[in-house]
Amino acid sequence: PGKLVATEPGPLRRSNNVGQLLHVSTAHGDPGEPPRADMVTVEACIANVLRYVEDENRYSSVLIPMLGTGQGGLRVKAVAAKLLERAVAFMRENPHGKLKSVYLLAYSEIDADDLAQAFQQRAAAGDFVDEQALPQPDAGAVKPAESTPATSAEV
């Protein structure tokens, strides 16, 4: 768990201007047991993704989904808070780096609301410079059955 593998984006390069796909494994388990994720592994995955993007020095932005919340079983609220914490810390530690934007992805309206609440809590603590970039609950949400993300927000 936590290991990063970079692959070519295939048709996403043309359709969505994606430079690379970064795959990380958040879940682990034993044979016969369902996969499960933990916050320590999610935090390692976040660090690996941010460091890779910065070290590659080719990309100014990255989109990170709510890691570990699918089959890994973690709650979106907890993962959103951890993603924000690590992204804000990384950007503060690397103010002159090539990576300028970290986008966080929610897949459903409920997840989007949880992500927006996490942003609002961080904003109340003074963590963001551009509060116009903050998502509002239900802002930009689409039906979960659609293939596009429900919302993304920039750190």
Q: Your description of this structure?
A:
- A hairpin with a 7-residue loop joins strand 3 and strand 4.
- The C terminus is likely disordered.
- The strands form three sheets. Strands 5-6-7 form a three-stranded mixed β-sheet.
- It is built from four helices and seven strands; from the N terminus they run E-H-E-E-E-H-E-H-E-H-E.
- With 155 residues, it is α+β, with helices and mostly antiparallel strands.
Summary, kept brief:
The protein is an alpha+beta fold and 155 residues long. It is built from four helices and seven strands; from the N terminus they run βαβββαβαβαβ.
Helical residue percent band? 25-40%
SSE pattern, N- to C-terminal: EHEEEHEHEHE
Helix segment tally? 4
Q: Shape from CA axes?
A: globular
User: Would you report the number of β strands?
Assistant: 7
Report the average pLDDT across residues: 82
Low-confidence runs of at least 5 consecutive residues: 136-153
**Terminal CA distance:** 25 Å
Sheet with the most strands?
Answer: 3 strands, mixed
- Structural class designation: alpha+beta
Strand content: 15-25%
Radius of gyration: 15 Å
